[in-house]
Amino acid sequence: MTSDPSPGDMIAAPDTEAGRFATLTFARDVAAPLPVLWQIWTAPAARAVWAAPSPSVTVEFLEADTRLGGREVSLCKAAGQPDFRCECGWLDLSPEERSVNYEVISSSGVRQSVALVTADFSGTGAQSRLAVTVQLSALARDMAAGYRQGFEAGLANLAGAARRTMVLQRVIEAPRTIVWGAWMNPETLPQWWGPDGFSCRTTRIDLRTGGEWVFDMIAPDGTIFPNHHLYTEVRPEERIRYTLLWGENGPRHADAWAAFEDQDGATKVTLGMVFSTEAEFQDAKGFGAVELGLQTLGKLGRFVTS
């Protein structure tokens, strides 16, 4: 498997009535495990990384609630063109198996199209596959062509982002309120953050949307690793979205998120990172970032249950 599409990967049924109705299918092989693909497809922080179809287009997320019955609202912006508003509502979210959502596109207050988007997931080991079916009803002309272009570019971006994404998960035997409180308390977060044997030295900490945490991580041998977290979203007891910088106002290292879910009285924590480059991702894996990250979540578990 490769992340490049084969000739049969993108197929469109014949349009009718001047292209106003179409069933479009897309498929993409992704060089990443299935849990990573699912997170890249559903996590708002990850969707923001790959959503724009080209560098000349920006996507601004106004709402993002990825749960059954939740919705996502975004604006697609390009210089010299009217903004397009996209509203997505989640109808089915079966983790690592299937998602279904409706999608409504409008511009200048006028509805352009409605669609039902079904995504099916499969994979084994380090390879996975995403198959998407779009049932489109367009109120404006040429929307099918725009959907083809947008999905082809978006899925290519998704596959690239997946190759530089790390996802860590752990079930912590404590209620979500307790786990969230340990994470989002400026007194307790530095006490457990970091792998075994590491400590934190804080310069500034403000754990809210628009806030930051400037700190050094200090290894057991005394090596100092400067860090700067910029918090772009904080949804209490649900998720955190932040940017990792190499030191205060340093180079961007990764776009990250942490999600918290109830699980039979315990809390499932998902920590995801889309690294800035694939080379940085490979370097991180090489020095044991997966194992070190799991140690960090282990310390959180011990902290809240001790």
Give a quick rundown of the structure:
Helix content is 24%, strand content 46%.
Question: Could you explain the architecture of this structure?
Answer:
This protein is an alpha+beta fold and 306 residues long. The chain has 2 domains: 10-162, 2-Layer Sandwich (Alpha-D-Glucose-1,6-Bisphosphate, Chain A, domain 4); 166-305, 2-Layer Sandwich (Alpha-D-Glucose-1,6-Bisphosphate, Chain A, domain 4). 24% of the residues lie in helices and 46% in strands. It is built from 7 helices and 15 strands. It has helices spanning 34-42, 44-50, 143-162, 176-183, 189-192, 278-286, 289-305, and strands spanning 10-12, 21-30, 57-64, 71-78, 84-94, 98-107, 110-124, 127-138, 165-172, 199-205, 212-218, 224-235, 239-246, 252-263, 266-275. The strands form 2 sheets. An 8-stranded antiparallel beta sheet has the order 1-2-8-7-6-5-4-3. A 7-stranded antiparallel beta sheet has the order 9-15-14-13-12-11-10, with helices on both faces. A hairpin with a 3-residue loop joins strand 5 and strand 6 (98-107). Helix 1 (34-42) packs across helix 3 and helix 2 crosses helix 3 (143-162). Mean pLDDT is 93; it is low at 1-18.
Element layout with pairings:
Layout (H helix, E strand, L loop, with lengths): L9 E3 L8 E10 L3 H9 L1 H7 L6 E8 L6 E8 L5 E11 L3 E10 L2 E15 L2 E12 L4 H20 L2 E8 L3 H8 L5 H4 L6 E7 L6 E7 L5 E12 L3 E8 L5 E12 L2 E10 L2 H9 L2 H17 L1
Antiparallel strand pairs: 1-2, 2-8, 3-4, 4-5, 5-6, 6-7, 7-8, 9-15, 10-11, 11-12, 12-13, 13-14, 14-15
